[in-house]
Design goal:
The structure holds three protein chains of three kinds.
Chain A lengths: L1 H31 L7 H39 L12 H8 L1 H32 L5 H13 L2 H12 L11 H8 L13 H27 L3 H9 L4 H12 L1 H17 L2 H6 L9 H10 L4 H14 L1 H15 L1
Chain B lengths: L4 H32 L4 H6 L9 E8 L7 E3 L2 E7 L6 E6 L14 E4 L2 E5 L4 E6 L9 E8 L6 H7 L4 H32 L5 H12 L3 H15 L5 H25 L3 H9 L4 H12 L1 H17 L2 H6 L9 H8 L7 H26 L2 H6 L2
Antiparallel strand pairs in B: 1-8, 2-3, 3-7, 4-8, 5-6, 6-7
Helix pairs in contact in B: 3-13, 4-7, 4-10, 4-12, 5-7, 7-10, 8-9, 10-13, 12-13
Chain C lengths: L2 H17 L20 H7 L7 E5 L4 H18 L2 E4 L5 H11 L5 E4 L2 H9 L8 H10 L3 H8 E3 L5 E3 L1 E8 L2 E4 L1 H7 L7 H13 L17 H14 L2 H8 L8 H14 L9 H4 L20 E3 L19 E4 L11 E11 L4 H9 L3 H8 L19 H12 L2 E4 L1 H4 L2 H16 L4 H14 L2
Parallel strand pairs in C: 1-2, 1-3, 10-11
Antiparallel strand pairs in C: 3-10, 4-5, 6-10, 7-8, 7-9
Helix pairs in contact in C: 3-15, 6-7, 10-12, 18-19
Classes of the chains: A mainly alpha, B alpha+beta, C alpha/beta.
């Protein structure tokens, strides 16, 4: 029980500490360079240079220790052998280039990037738009959101009951095969059916991430000023037109954010692949390959090299976001 | 809002139907797990979950009561009982694996070695032998229609698992600070990145996006090393910091995007009125950003709630540090094959995030106010 | 059970969890000195004072195995006064590597893969055992030398030493079957590999399906086939070839290895021989697979799996009555004796301390083995224990297979580097049952292995 007090205490101390930090640091800044008196103009400018960093400091400190530092460790490790002791130069990268599983992973990762972010964002947008218009919308939202709340291991069992295959003459316990058989088809081993099995795995992630897209997009849709919509209605626009021509453009920024977030998640996703096929039958992806070499191969060098490839793939998205940020500032 | 009544009602219908279809598609898989969580392991492995909702025909293998239950009736020894625990109808039976449906119910059949017996339609059986039964008793193969049968045993095992109550507290201890701290830290940073002018701003935004992709798995060893070196070791402080930091990039990214979309006029008029950035942040930005804060809170809560990897690395495996996911994993058996337990535990552990979602849902609506402020 | 009752019990347990922080000290399962079958002398003579010292043990055992091991630990605690905490469970391999590398290792790690122990030793993360431990193994374990070999690795400085102490062994060369189904059809338990093959063909001719084989295991999909291939390796090649193979001195794509893979393929790649057809083998879950023995009518007659599998049989199944096992027979044509494939767990010291050393010494006492033997799921090569204490006849029968073995070999995939034994080998097996050629998949493994050198 004292533990919960401790947790509660931490929340209070943490929240209070954060607020106190921001409040005090701002106060000190204002005391050092008061925005009044003879030097008011210069002081305001000087304070304006410092203030953003006061706001950013806690975040930057945490990020630097927990995310930037490991990146540098990974770069260092990727140039060393499996125990991290002997320098091997670019060996790990050369090995990667010649590894067939790596080529397969790159191919699959691109497939995932094409299908999943688009699919999840699309369904999320539809769900958000439709559920906002009906009375039982909150319930519907909760139902579509539910997969997000299920752990990945739970999700893999759920989909096992969908894709399972038992073989000829045996009762199928997988829903998909039962449906196929009910319509007179023959049961399939869905998860070994190259290359379609990749898409069956992607379906799982779309199913999970639609809830994420829906929640974020729904908040954005509700933030659209009423006037613009009312004006359109007065102009006699149909609901479809309003949605496509008025609403979607206004939340375009949020759609991009959702799409970016899911794209990055796709680069990192390994739980689904690991739990359902472990990358067999041509379904390997980079993140799972990294996980494999890290924890099964115990080779931090190779795992780090793969991790850096994953991080490299994100650069186009970063550049695109810099451009967007520039546009917003104008 | 809509003036044309006819198209409106048909549109409402279309929307309702579309949502029903969407909800069905999204819940059927989970529903399968829900049904499975009320079935026992053997049922799950042999028949589809949908078939358990209706009476269905099944072939059973059954061993009659063992020799200790026999009684003597005059010259013969008798073992009797029922093949069903909870009722059903026998349509055929057999005594050998070769032909499990050889006989009609009620037919008296020779089992070999002078033993004979029968199974009736209601499942009762009676097997007689001229000499006392010894050792392994005979088998019966029964084709029967059994009514749906569900069990609460899985939930019983999960809910009363050793240490689950304690683990629930531990998980709460982990999740609450790990949800609140990053939101606060990220909100300030997001405001600076959205509304303050300073050199290197867009570079910082891009770095935040870049940091989203850092795979956690690689960070584990160096960070645990660090925790050990500075004396945090494996304790709650370490996991709070770790979860907060891992959640930060997404928090900053989502919040900044939301804040950037807030109406410029409000902030600028406040600035003209002489409000400091700190005041603007506290009095204007924070209240207006509630929907974004709430949605991120939901996600961060979910991740920390369902996390197992970070907890096993940064927290110990001992009773006062084991989280719920850890206890549930123990229940899955040494080779993780107990799907019935997995199904039940998935629904036990989903309940809290769903409560959080419903509790937060009303804050998601505040966005409406954001638009109408000006 | 009503939901109200559930709720009441939930509250009660929650309250109990709140009130009593730690569980009460564990009672000893068998009171010392009472049952004369146990070697209580060894318990008494081990007694020493280590009170105030504590030891952390991490291992792969969760659930039932964890509880069983804790009953053994309780005797150590009672005999020494030391405080031992076992925090085992799933995900051990990742956990131990991270903990050891990050500098917060447990005192003792219970490693199921000698390959992992070897890796830890190579990185200088293990403390060597005293020389007396090797002598003790040679003298007291059946086929002692092979157990010494299993735990001996090169350290960070390249010098070889004994690091691992084997405690708890499993037998893998088992075929499970239903004796009554055999009786119904008039089949006999085969004594040789040739008879096993003849029986397989016979069953298929009778219109039934001989085997249930499933390689599915989620993240570990493919491993059940490695056991098959290893068993076949020991039945077509010499034990020396087997050893060379696990060290890659015999190439993975050597004709000898390919022959073993194809022997497995003879069973697994024939649509008439496996339940669900050959295409179902790769994706059928290994936990679901044995259930075919128990259906009505039976979906298959035989299932090759290690001694742990009864926990996946349908509820209420009685081993020895509803189901039984026979030794996966050796070939009569080849003079290779009766090889047995097995596995086990190695205790290694990840953080040296007197209490850790004392615990490994405790594992040398007969009583440390007998406590677990008397319960369930434990086999031991210790010659000094009283086999009368075996908790059930099944264990005793497995123990006999172990004792009658001419050759005992450890699970090869656990001896290989992780990237092979828990990676490329699995993939190769999945590809092979999926229809690829044995030479091709073996070549793939060898290529991966080449990049590790």
């Amino acid at each position: 029980m004292d533990q919960l007090f401790m947790a509660g205490g931490t929340v209070v101390i943490g929240v209070f500490g954060c607020v106190a930090y921001f409040f005090l640091s701002n106060m000190i800044l204002d005391a050092v360079w008061p925005p009044r008196g003879p030097d008011a103009g210069r002081n305001i400018l000087r304070a304006a240079m410092i203030r953003p960093w006061l706001f950013l400091f806690p975040a930057i400190a945490l990020l630097a220790v927990y995310l930037v530092y490991p990146v540098f460790v990974s770069i260092w490790l990727s140039l060393h052998d499996n125990t991290g002791q002997r320098f091997v130069g670019a060996d790990n990268y050369l090995w990667l280039l010649n590894d067939r599983k790596f080529q397969e992973s790159i191919r699959n990762n691109f497939l995932w990037l094409l299908v999943v972010p688009g699919g999840a964002t699309f369904f999320g947008l539809i769900a958000a738009a439709l559920t906002d218009r009906i009375r039982w919308g909150n319930f519907a939202k909760a139902m579509i959101f539910m997969p997000m709340a299920i752990s990945f291991i739970g999700a893999s069992v759920i989909w096992k009951f969908i894709y399972d295959y038992r073989g000829e003459g045996r009762t199928e316990i997988g829903l998909l095969n039962a449906v196929v058989e009910a319509f007179g088809g023959t049961a399939q081993t869905w998860l070994t059916l190259e290359p379609w099995n990749n898409f069956f795995l992607m379906a799982v992630l779309i199913w999970i991430q639609t809830g994420f897209a829906m929640v974020i997009l729904s908040a954005a849709l509700r933030g659209i000023p009423e006037e613009t919509i009312e004006a359109a209605i007065l102009d006699g626009a149909s609901p479809f037109q309003i949605f496509l021509k008025i609403k979607v453009p206004q939340i375009w920024g949020t759609i991009a954010v959702v799409w970016t977030t899911i794209t990055i998640l796709v680069l990192k996703v390994f739980d689904i692949v690991l739990a359902m096929t472990n990358g067999q039958w041509g379904t390997q992806v980079l993140a799972n390959m990294m996980f494999d070499w890290m924890f099964r191969g115990n080779d931090s060098g190779r795992a780090s090299a793969i991790a850096l490839v994953i991080m490299l793939l994100v650069t186009p998205i970063m550049i695109w976001n810099i451009r967007n940020a520039h546009k917003e500032m104008r | 809002m809509d003036n044309i009544a006819g198209t409106k009602s048909s549109l409402v219908w279309a929307v309702n139907i579309a949502v029903v279809v969407l909800v069905l598609l999204w819940t059927i898989p989970t529903f399968g797990l829900l049904v499975s969580s009320f079935r026992d392991r053997d049922q799950i492995a042999t028949t589809g979950w949908w078939s358990s909702l209706f009476p269905h025909e099944a072939s059973l293998r059954f061993r009659i009561g063992d020799a200790e239950t026999q009684r003597q009736e005059g010259e013969v020894f008798v073992i009797d009982g029922s093949v069903f625990e909870a009722g059903g109808t026998v349509s055929a039976f057999g005594t050998s694996n070769r032909d499990p449906a050889a006989h009609e119910p009620g037919e008296v059949v020779d089992f070999g070695d002078g033993i004979s017996g029968t199974v009736n339609e209601d499942g009762s059986y009676r097997v007689t032998s001229p000499v006392a039964f010894e050792g392994r008793s005979p088998r019966l193969f029964v084709t029967s229609v059994t009514p749906p049968r569900f069990t609460l045993e899985n939930y019983d095992r999960v809910l009363f698992a050793q240490g689950l109550g304690r683990a629930f507290l531990n998980t709460m201890t982990v999740t609450i600070p790990a949800t609140v701290i990053p939101i606060l830290v990220a909100a300030f940073a997001a405001y600076a990145l959205a509304w303050m002018e300073f050199p290197g701003r867009s570079l910082l935004i891009a770095s935040v996006v870049g940091l989203l992709v850092v795979p956690l798995q690689l960070a584990l060893i160096p960070l645990l090393q660090l925790h050990n070196a500075i004396g945090i070791g494996k304790d709650y402080l370490g996991i709070w910091l770790a979860h907060s930091a891992f959640g930060l990039p997404l928090a900053i990214y989502l919040l900044r995007n939301y804040m950037v979309g807030l109406p410029r006029e409000i902030i600028e008029s406040a600035r003209v009125d002489g409000a400091t950035d700190f005041q603007i942040f506290l009095k204007i930005i924070l209240p207006l950003s509630f929907p974004a804060l709430a949605s991120f809170a939901i996600f961060q809560f979910l991740w920390t709630w369902n996390d197992l990897l970070i907890a096993t690395v940064f927290l110990g495996n001992t009773q006062d540090q084991l989280v719920m996911t850890g206890v549930l994993r123990e229940l899955l058996g040494s080779r993780g094959g107990d799907w019935e337990i997995l199904a039940a535990s998935a629904f036990v552990s989903i309940s809290v995030p769903l409560v959080v979602f419903f509790a937060m849902q009303k804050y998601l609506v505040r966005g409406l106010l954001a638009g109408s402020v000006k | 059970m009503t939901s109200r009752f559930l709720a009441a019990r939930f509250l009660a347990t929650a309250a109990a969890a709140l009130l009593s922080g730690a569980a009460a000290a564990q009672d000893l399962k068998f009171p010392p000195g009472e049952d004369s079958r146990f070697n209580w002398d060894s318990y008494e003579s081990f007694k020493r004072d280590l009170s105030g010292q504590s030891l952390k043990i991490d291992g792969p055992w969760g659930g039932v195995d964890k509880a069983l091991f804790e009953t053994v630990v309780a005797y150590f605690e009672a005999a020494t006064g030391a405080d031992v905490e076992f925090s085992g469970g799933d995900g051990f391999e990742q956990r131990v590597m991270i903990d050891v590398e990050a500098g917060s290792p447990p005192g003792i790690a219970v490693v199921p893969q000698p390959g992992l122990a070897q890796e830890l030793a190579r990185r200088g993360k293990l403390a060597p055992l005293p020389a007396s431990a090797a002598d003790w193994l040679r003298e007291n374990y059946a086929a002692g030398e092979s157990w010494v070999d299993l735990g001996t690795y090169a350290g960070a400085d390249g010098a070889e030493a004994l690091y691992g102490f084997v405690y708890k062994v499993d037998v893998k060369s088992l075929v499970w079957y239903s004796p009554e189904n055999f009786e119904d059809m008039g089949y006999e338990v085969p004594e040789t590999m040739e008879e096993l093959k003849a029986l397989t063909e016979q069953i298929a001719e009778d219109g039934e399906t001989p085997w249930c084989i499933g390689l599915g295991s989620g993240p570990a999909t493919g491993w059940p086939a490695t056991d098959w291939v290893e068993d076949m390796m020991l039945r077509v090649n010499t034990p020396e070839d087997y050893d060379a193979w696990t060290r890659n001195e015999l190439a993975f794509d050597d004709p000898k290895v390919i022959a073993a893979i194809e022997e497995f393929g003879w069973f697994a790649r024939n649509d008439d021989f496996v339940s669900g057809g050959a295409s179902a083998v790769g994706s059928t879950d290994f936990r679901d697979s044995p259930k075919g023995l128990f259906t009505s009518p039976a979906q298959c007659f035989m299932h090759h799996q290690a001694s742990f599998i009864p926990s996946f049989f349908p509820e209420g199944t009685v081993v020895g009555e509803d189901v039984d096992f026979f030794y996966f027979p050796a070939s009569a044509e080849k003079d290779l004796g009766k090889p047995v494939l097995g596995a086990g767990t190695l205790f290694v010291i990840t953080k040296d301390s007197p209490v850790a050393q004392a615990f490994l010494e405790f594992l040398q006492t007969p009583i440390a083995h007998e406590i677990w033997m008397a319960q369930t799921g434990f086999l031991t090569p210790h010659k000094g224990v009283n086999t009368e204490v075996y908790g059930d006849p099944t264990l005793k029968k497995m123990g006999d297979i172990l004792l009658q073995a001419d050759t005992f070999r450890f699970d090869g995939s656990d001896l290989m580097p992780g990237a092979i034994g828990a990676g490329a080998f699995w993939t190769a097996m999945v590809d092979y049952v999926g229809g690829k050629d044995a030479a091709t998949v073996a070549g793939d493994v060898q290529r991966t292995w080449n990049t590790l050198k």
